[in-house]
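[Automated response] Your request has been received and processed.

Submitted sequence:
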Amino acid sequence: MFRRMFLFLLAVISWAIFGESLVAQRVQFPSAAPSYGTPTPVIPPTPVPSLPNFDPYGNPLLGTPPPDVPYNLAPNVTPPITPQFAPPATPGVPQQGGSLFPSGLPYQWESGAYQYQNSDGSVARLQRFLQEISFEQTWIWGDSDPETLGINRTELAVTFGVPIFYNPDTPLLITPGFAFNWFDGPSAGGDLPPRVYDAYVDGAWHPRLTDWFHADLGLRTGVWTDFNELNSDSIRILGRGLGVLAISPQFDVLVGVWYLDRNRIKLLPAGGVHWHPSSEWDAYLVFPNPKIRKRSINVGSSQWWVYVAGEYGGGRWTVERDPAGVAAGAPDDIDYNDIRILFGFEWETQTQARGHFEVGYVFDREIVYGKTVLPPKLKLDDSIMLRAGVSF
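Generated structure:
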């Protein structure tokens, strides 16, 4: 009897201890059955919160990752150099044979210079020996009118830079050039040869004496002739000298003279202001060749500009007059002078290639005869002009 009571109490205590947990286990896994062969239930793992993404390129605001770069290569970053004052007008662009000032850009990227990063991180600024190769074609319309002169001019030039020992940023620019000039007319006693030539060597220097004062100096010599009449008058010396006072980084004042060595005008005053208020505008208001331009569009790495300009054009040559004309083949020394109003486009790239195309109205045209004076002067009709050029 005591044995049965003991077993009964043991069963009650066991139920009190283990029965509730067995019921809870059966409720938590209702699919589990006490029969054999039933698979043991798999408890899913507790999800672990993911860590923040520290990849900077995983942020869509930072853009697309750059291409792979070897880790042992330091980035080749050249710190920009900000000049205190604007560069001198038309650096590195040779004067065109038929004009006073270059047809290049009065304010442009540095021509003929490049930068090299040394191993210690410093930046050296170097000058190229071959600065520029340029080609330009000019056409002035002419017809059969007795007082009309048509001109077709082709000019080739190469510019070399010779460093000045105390300032490599302002090299001496040496430009040999050659130009062909084809004349069509005039038939009213002009008696011009069909062709005349320019063969010259031009030197230009833009010294920066201080931050607020620099100069624009030039000297050109050579022969201007039809090569049928070649004498001492065929050799000419042209020059220019302008002082540039930098009132501010955006405003320069230029004063100086041009020596033209023509029959009509020997010396011509030159001066004005150069104002570049922003990267969009550039006003080179310098007599006698002013130019105002505005940035138009950017195409790839090139910048396009639109401009209006004025120019005092022409030249002087020794020639042999037409034997069938009024001077009966006599030697002569002639001027051709005109005034031009131009509208055009120009482009420039970071590789220092440049080009331009322009259309103009040409007026106040004349031919001055220096020796025979037959006639002393011949007035010509107004005309239009097309000009295009490229340099690299």
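Summary generated for your ticket: Helices lie at 2-28. The two ends are 123 Å apart (CA to CA).
If you did not submit this request, please reply to this message.
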